[in-house]
Amino acid sequence: MGVFVLNHSLVKHKLTNIRKKDTSTKDFYQNVSEIAGLMAYEISKDFPTHDIVIETPICKSKQPELDCEVVIVPILRAGLGMVDGIRNLIPTAKVGFIGLYRDEETLEPHKYFCKLPNTIKNGICLVVDPMLATGGSAIAAIDVLKEEGAKDIRFVGLVGAPEGVSALEKAHPDIRIYLASLDEKLNENGYIVPGLGDCGDRLFGTK
Ligand code: PRP
Ligand code: URA
Q1: Does the pLDDT of residue 1 top 90, yes or no?
Q2: What count of Cα atoms within 13 Å lies in the side-chain half-sphere of residue 134?
Q3: How far apart are the first and last CA of the chain?
Q4: What sections of the chain are H helices per DSSP?
């Protein structure tokens, strides 16, 4: 379905903030959250609406309201950093969780948690994870969602590597991939270059 890299000066500016190695945990979290909100604003521009009749102070009027369930599915841990920014814009969104960690040697994802709302079956599922490196975690999370009956799935990440984008497109050609930046490559340890380091650790102050 394609890869969409958001071309937005504010997003680029905030991304630069989180790439800096000396950015504090607090500022890192805040910028990740704000970028996620800006991305949600852009991504949701074609969400379906239907008209309802309301009364303004002046008259009755037909006006649009959102006509879809939205489910945000963060991949733990780092995906959690994107949830608040999206919920601020779409407060009716439900939140499901998929816990995956990447084995540091093999880079293979391992699932350790899953809790999803029923609305994934008919809703728009936004799988959120700041980092798309080898693509293994995103592919595994989307495998889970499809097994559970989700049909409309979109991946929302901050920084992607070409390797991860190709792997995700190959494994799940039916989903849209939204990124704030498509970076150069993966290094020999599976980290994105130039990237921003270990996103989970930087968000939560571990290490
Ligand atoms: C990071 C990141 C992604 C994954 C990306 O998580 O948040 O989930 O790596 O790498 P991949 O595309 O090669 O799978 P990590 O496994 O470090 O767990 P954490 O979020 O708990 O730190
Ligand atoms: N996970 C991260 O947190 N950062 C990377 O660069 C790659 C995977």
Answers
A1: no
A2: 16
A3: 37
A4: 9-19, 25-43, 83-89, 136-147, 162-171, 199-204
